[in-house]
Design a protein that fits this description.
five-stranded antiparallel β-sheet, 12 helices, 12 strands, 14% strand, rod-shaped, alpha+beta
Length: 562
């Protein structure tokens, strides 16, 4: 089972704290117990020494059994727990009675002249225990060490009357063993308490860390914008309140993000529309300006060609009359007639004038188409002929339709029906036609490069009249597109063209023009490898157009060009 990080840190802190407390208490307990037991042992030894000294004082020197009785008393006291030895010496320091099984150790011989070993003031602090009683004030306490008894606390009490001294040795090893046993028991109790504390801490930390872990996971999922996540914490404490607050914040954040995304999408669409509208407005102004500038000299040329033709015909008739009535000519004139081939000029000059007139009429038609495409003077609904708009669009795109290097020309097929004039924003519809036909030309690029005479690239424009509406169909036999791409084709900035070649705005704006601003419909059928057919349906009488930036619906059926 994996422990939580919080529990691990808490456990480490507990271990350090309990180790410090256990060490401190063990040292304090050992010191206290030594202080207490030393006083108790010393008091007990002092009492034994006092009893033995009193017994010795009651014997007279003439009593022959005194030494045997004293030995019996000493032997009885050695059975007392903690007593290491009892030695009674006379005034000269000679042993009278003792508890050693063998002879008296050398260090107890002549005790009156040999100082005790390891004596020092360090023992005094332990003899201050309240358990130590020295009412007479004549007890001497020192440490003594020997191979027969180890370490002992040597309590010396004089025998009343100055007849000698009584030495009682208390076993210091036993005292230390008792101290160690007490410390071990204390450490065992603390270990049990530590175990209980760890278990309680685990339960407590687990109750805290589990909801905190859930909150952390919930926060990470929210950071990854997974607002479908939830946290199942319903407690009434601070963590439950925090979880409830986070859920409320997540809901508010999700709503705010959705509003921001919607606003950003609208701004992007509006920006795209403004950019595209600015481009088309600039194009319309350019086309209108060029048409206006070309129109004046073309009208001048077209208006004067008929006079030039009439003058030319009159001059040719005059030459013919002069030729009939002025023969023969001078040699210089005859040579000049031969040099300029006067007969050819007389025959070809009327043809040249006729060709110039045809060219002028063609230029006038082009100018008319350009002005019809731009329609800068028609910013409101106006009844127009849709065929003029389609033809004008084809004229503007004629440079892309014709034969170019490596690409064959696109065949244009027109199947126009009898249509009434419809009320529309002609300039904007021409823009929509231009976007759709331009995408169709791009879709035909691959077929144009193959130069297959059996399946030439073809662009077909068809129109027909419906009930209170007209239908415009723009079809190509290009590459087509898959169904999944058709679902996104009207999304702003979506394009199937390589990066840098398509803005993804053409069909989006065309949708807005047809559907939002004219109340029409757009349908498309496309088959990969067979081409696409784009159908526009427009009402004959349009309602007031919606000029506000529209939103592009998701999942619209689209064409494969943008």
């Amino acid at each position: 089972m994996k422990l939580s990080s919080l529990f691990q840190k808490t456990l480490i802190g507990q271990i350090v704290l309990f180790a410090f407390i256990a060490a401190s208490m063990a040292l304090a307990s050992a010191y206290s117990l030594r202080w207490y037991l030393t006083g108790e042992y010393t008091s007990k030894g002092s009492a034994i020494a006092k009893s033995v000294a009193g017994s010795q004082a009651n014997f007279s020197e003439a009593d022959s059994d005194a030494q045997a009785i004293l030995q019996t008393i000493v032997d009885e006291f050695v059975e007392v727990n903690g007593v290491a030895y009892v030695v009674v010496v006379d005034a000269e320091g000679n042993p009278i009675a003792h508890t050693f099984e063998a002879e008296v150790p050398n260090q107890f011989l002549a005790l009156g002249t040999i100082p005790p070993q390891d004596s020092g003031p360090g023992l005094n602090r332990f003899t201050h225990s309240p358990n130590f009683e020295d009412s007479d004030g004549d007890v001497v306490v020192n440490y003594r060490r020997g191979s027969e008894f180890g370490y002992a606390i040597d309590i010396v009490r004089p025998i009343p009357g100055g007849d000698g001294k009584v030495h009682v040795g208390m076993d210091q090893a036993l005292m230390i063993a008792q101290i160690r046993a007490a410390v071990r028991f204390q450490l065992l109790i603390m270990a049990l308490l530590f175990g209980v504390s760890v278990l309680a801490t685990y339960v407590m930390v687990n109750r805290i860390s589990r909801p905190l872990s859930q909150l952390t996971d919930y926060a990470q999922r929210l950071a990854n914008r997974d607002f479908s996540a939830s946290v199942d914490i319903r407690s009434q404490d601070e963590i439950g309140l925090l979880a409830c607050t986070m859920e409320n914040m997540a809901a508010d954040t999700q709503q705010f993000i959705q509003q921001l995304e919607s606003t950003l999408k609208e701004l992007q669409q509006t920006q795209a529309q403004l950019v595209q509208s600015a481009k088309m407005s600039s194009l319309g102004q350019l086309v209108a300006g060029m048409a206006h500038e070309i129109n004046n000299p073309v009208n001048f040329i077209a208006g004067n060609i008929r006079y030039a033709r009439r003058y030319a015909e009159s001059l040719l008739e005059l030459l013919q009359l002069h030729d009939r009535h002025s023969q023969p000519y001078a040699p210089e004139i005859t040579d000049k007639i031969d040099d300029i081939d006067l007969d050819f000029i007389a025959e070809d000059f009327p043809k040249a004038i006729a060709s110039m007139q045809v060219g002028a009429e063609r230029i006038k038609d082009i100018v008319h188409s350009l002005r019809n495409f731009s329609r800068l003077d028609e910013a409101e609904l106006k009844a127009v002929n849709i065929h003029d708009g389609l033809d004008s669009t084809l004229l503007v795109l004629s440079s892309r339709l014709g034969k170019t290097q490596g690409l064959c020309a696109i065949t244009i097929e027109k199947h126009y029906g009898q249509l009434p004039k419809i009320e529309c924003l002609a300039g904007q519809l021409n823009q929509a036609f231009m976007n759709i036909i331009g995408n169709a030309i791009d879709a035909l690029a691959e077929k144009r490069s193959q130069l297959n005479p059996d399946s030439p690239p073809t662009l077909t424009l068809s129109t027909r009249c419906l009930d209170n509406a007209i239908e415009i169909a723009i079809a190509d036999n290009g590459i087509g597109m898959a169904e999944d791409l058709q679902q996104r084709i009207f999304d702003p900035f979506f394009t199937t063209k390589p990066v840098g070649e398509g803005s993804g705005l053409g069909l989006s704006i065309s949708y807005q023009i047809v559907v939002q601003r004219h109340g029409g419909q757009i349908q498309c059928g496309s088959t990969p490898g067979a081409g696409s057919r784009f159908v526009i349906t427009l009402p004959v009488t349009a309602a007031k157009p919606d000029l506000t930036p529209p939103l592009i619906p998701d999942g619209s059926v689209a064409v494969p060009f943008s």
